[in-house]
Amino acid sequence: MEEKDSQQPAPKKGRGQSGSVSRRLILDVAAAMFSAQGFTETSMREIAAKAGMRAPSVYYHFTSKEQILSEILSIAIRSTNLAVRESVERLPADAAPRRKIEAAVGAHVRSLHRNIHYTATSVRYQGQVPQEVALNVRADRETYADYWQQLLAEAAASGDLSPTINRQFLQPLILGSMNHTINWYDAGRGNLEELILTVLALFKGMWPHQDR
Fold it and tell me: Whose CB has fewer CB within 10 Å in the chain, the N or C terminal residue?
């Protein structure tokens, strides 16, 4: 993971930038720091210094560190949700439900590793964030989980998904397995597409008809 971090462009100075650019810079810097050293170990002053700003400039955009974290988590969840939905929607209208799930798996893994600081913060601190932050992003998490349940329900109805599988177990198992790659994936072991193929192979037992 350190190799990926070193490839990120150095943040530009915040002085003189528009409000939206400065706000995004703060989020980018905070996401990198939260994912590397932890939320509680990172101060607003450290975020400001890393962004090339004074602390009051950060407080102009965000009232607290918790607000920054909430926005980082929302961006991570919503960007992955959007990537997955767009990938599924690009399939032919008559695509089998199994193919939709396979497309969703690929899009989820790519989004995880292409937005690494945001998604790493979301994955690593899920269940450990302050209650106010958890409440702020709960709707985003539920919306994304519901979409996966929709895909799995469609697969079950079509016969693509084995009837012996409990979908209430399957959805968090799929997402949890993919999210865990944040903690160990290294490009030195293989490229991202190889990782996706491996994840798909791991869940091959879901499909009762392997030739579909």
Answer: C
CATH number of 66-207: 1.10.357.10
The confidence band for 66, taking pLDDT boundaries of 50, 70 and 90, is: very high
Q: Residue 166 CA to chain centroid, in angstroms?
A: 24
Q: What is the DSSP letter of 165?
A: S
Q: For tokens 């949700």, name the residue.
A: 81
Q: Which residue has the tokens 């955009």?
A: 61
pLDDT above 90 covers what percent of the chain?
71
In the prediction, which pLDDT does 209 show?
A: 64
Q: What's the average model confidence in pLDDT over 68-89?
A: 97
Q: Which CATH number fits domain 12-63: 1.10.10.60, 2.40.50.180, 3.40.50.1820, 3.90.190.20?
A: 1.10.10.60
CB neighbours (10 Å) of residue 153? Answer: 14
3-class DSSP state of 8: coil
Q: Which residues lie below 8 Å from residue 168, measured CB to CB, with a gap of 6+?
A: none
Specify the DSSP class assigned to residue 9: P
Nearest residue to 37 (alpha-carbon basis) of 56, 22, 50: 50
Residue 88 CA to residue 156 CA, distance in Å, equals 17
